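Progress against Task 2.4 (sequence-to-structure conversion) is shown through the following example record, which the project officer requested during the mid-term review.
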Amino acid sequence: MLVSLGCKSIMNVARAKLDLIKPEEVNMDEYEMWHQAYRNFRETTVFMVTGLELFQKTNYVEALMYLIYSHQYNRELLSKGLYRGHDEELLGHYRRECLLKLNEQAAAMFESGEEPEVTTGLGIMNELVVPCIPLLLVHDTERDLLAVEDMRNRWCSYLGQEMESNLQEKLTDFLPKLLDCSTEIKSFHDPPKLPAYSTLELCERFSRIMAALCRVPTEGR
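Structure tokens generated for the chain above:
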């Protein structure tokens, strides 16, 4: 309930600021600034709530881009004020965990040695995980760096193992992409489409997902 009230209070502050501007005292620059601040906060919240809901449903493929963009947009909010955004550590944790879950799924598919699982697993790595690794490297956060190391170690552990020649070839082709990616962020996915929520519905969904997360053990965050 407290988290939901916090979400509502931020929205109410922006609205109150707009209401305080009387028609005869309209400063369009100030009006646009608060209107844009409210819109940015609301959009970031929708990205976050949608990503966390999908993560809770173990739909990691769909959750990833929502978590990636919510984290990026939230950093922009926080750069303008400590209380302008959401908990950065929470968003960082679920962004990292989503990538680790996808890496685990992809590795299990590769280990199966069967098609189309092998191709699907490598597709997850090439299209989703590898492009996101620079985002974990760029700020030198210890837990993010450890997560990247864990992902790389998992795939490097296959080197020297006996496997079919076609699997060996696919692994040899893939590993340089995983190991050589730098902090340079190259081509990236467009932001996913945002669901249309009313403000009341968004606050309720925010409250529900935060309550659900509070029941999850927080070790390792």
